[in-house]
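BACKBONE STRUCTURE TOKENS:
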Amino acid sequence: MSASIPSRRGPLHQGFTLVELLVAMVLGIIVSGGIISLFASTSRANRVQASLAHMQENGRFAVSRLVDDLRMTNGQYCSNSGGVPSNSGSVAGGSSVDGNHAWFLQDFQRAPTIFLAPTSVNFANLLPVNTFNPAATSSVPYPMPSGYFMRGYECSGGSCTPTAPTAGQGIPDTGTTAGKRIPGTDILTVRYLQGKGWSLDAGASQQFPASTATSDTTLTSIVLARNATTNEPYVSEFTGDIAMITECSKTQIFAVKHAAGNTLIPDTGRNFSLPVGVPQPVLASRSPTADPRLHDFTRDFVTVTYFLELRADDNPDAPANHLIGVLMRKVNNAPAEELVRGVERLDFRYGVDMSNGTTAYLTADQVDNRASGTLICPAGPKDAITEAGCLWRAVKSIELSLLLDSVDQLAMPDGELAYQYPPDGASVQTPPSTMTNGLSRQMMRRGFTAVVGVRNHF
């Protein structure tokens, strides 16, 4: 019998078949696709939520910053102690006032008397403004025109009514490139007095001669001295050549010269006439509400202008040539500063109380032309109830509206791009297929609005 021969075969090798591999790959692709889809959806949702939160934050800040300035419009020292609103059946000259007209007692504190010639001094801090000056050829002291305290510009497309300030006045022309003002967005300039100035009745600064109990005398000089107890400015801070003396019944603006020491004297070469000393409340016959103060007009009378400007997006991840809207704030003649990004619409409406008890919200052009001449202004210092721009002093509230966008472009269907903007009505709208303001269509948008009472309106 022969012996058996052992097998030389190695261990058995097993693996996946081609069908199994294909099935596994398909399942893997399905799972991976689901994960990628979930990640993309989550990422997109996060971007949307972040953009909404960013718009909300920017909108709140923009509104609060605007409100701070708008509330101070026309503000001067203690001017909120002015007259009480009054409706009347007649105005100066015997003209009748019907239920469609508004007439109020004029607060003379809000119409300071200007003693200096318009052509003799540069009102540099009043820029930018395109405004009327009915006293340009005056030879006697005149009230400051109402439009210098507040003036808006209603803009549509590339033009504004009244005509907007120019680039030479620090406001860019309209356009759809970086550095231009966004077409169709309003402009508003407001002015108010800031700082406490120097009291002329606190035992430090003095006026000469002092006002007497029987009459006000011509003012010849003012000696400045700082009252540290009330934290008045240092005397060296009065560096301008225009002084503003104000108390609770009248205001005077006049040119001054710096004499020896801390003495200011009215400039007889540039003033039509000399101002008068203001009431001293320590005298028995004077009103206890009087509080005479001196201000450096050039420094303390602040001019603030708001407008929207296009800027190039400096985000390195932004698409090429992507533009963003920026809310700009210009103070006096300083360069405008950037406040908030992602603002593409800015609209103002001005509230005027009517004699029939209603409040009419007018556009800037309607305020400027007295609603095509159908409204009568508050009685002015010279009963100038129909002078150009006189209705600006009747504005008691301002309605501001802003449209903010997400800045970043988002690939979204029209339904998710829809928004509401109060000045356009209550209807829901989507961005037009062709944008005319230089901004991208593919951004989320949200409207913000607020009504601001003018604090110093009587």
Observations:
- Residues 197 and 297 are 10 Å apart (CA to CA).
- The first strand starts at residue 113 and ends at 114.
